Amino acid sequence: MLTVRDVIEQRVAGYEHGADVYLPKPASSAELVAVVAALARRIAPREDAAADFELDLSALELRGPGRTVDLLEPEAALLRTFALAPKGKLETWQMQDVLNEPEASRVALAIRITRLRKKLAEASAPEDALRAVCGQGYRLFVDLRIL
């Protein structure tokens, strides 16, 4: 948060409302760059972090702690795109684009998502691993490493 408000009560309120950093103006450009770099390091995915699930694109398999599940190509493509999407969220048009089905109805997409949820569950994913985002699309809530 970068603001002219610099009274301690206002800064505390900023932190209580979710600010990671509270910089009163004028802030030096060097400090601002350092803060952004520190936040980027903290939120960047770690390459050595173990994912609960692995998506093997060449074998078309989803590997989870419970077992390995075979996928169809469209399912693998969707999972890959969910895993790479910011916050694991895809809008309806993005799913249509990935599936190369620009005219696919929401019902057709919902059927694909239902099948994908079943396969995630077979691989021991939680029941709500793939949730609808009202009026937008869907979001994947499991860590998925792409092989």
Instruction: Please state the second-level CATH architecture of the largest domain.
Output: Orthogonal Bundle
Strand order within the widest beta sheet: 5-4-3-9
Mean pLDDT: 83
Instruction: Indicate the radius of gyration in whole angstroms.
Output: 20 Å
Strand content: 15-25%
User: What global shape is seen?
Assistant: elongated
CATH C-level of the largest domain: Mainly Alpha
Series of secondary-structure elements, N-terminal to C-terminal:
EHEHEEEHEHHEEE
Main beta sheet, described? 4 strands, mixed
Give the number of helices.
5
State the helical fraction: 40-55%
Alpha-carbon distance between the two ends = 38 Å
List segments where confidence is low: pLDDT < 50 over at least 5 consecutive residues: 46-50
Number of strands: 9
Concise account of the structure shown:
With 147 residues, this protein is an alpha/beta fold.
Structure description:
The chain has a four-stranded mixed β-sheet, with helices on one face. Strands 6-8-7 form a three-stranded antiparallel β-sheet. It has two domains: about 1-45, no CATH class; about 55-145, Arc Repressor Mutant, subunit A (Orthogonal Bundle), CATH 1.10.10.10. Strand 7 (about 130-135) and strand 8 form a beta hairpin. The longest helix is centred in the C-terminal third of the chain and has 17 residues, at about 105-120. By secondary structure, the protein is α/β, with parallel strands linked by helices. The protein has helices spanning about 10-15, 30-45, 75-85, 90-100, 105-120; strands at about 1-5, 25, 55, 60-65, 70, 90, 130-135, 135-140, 145.
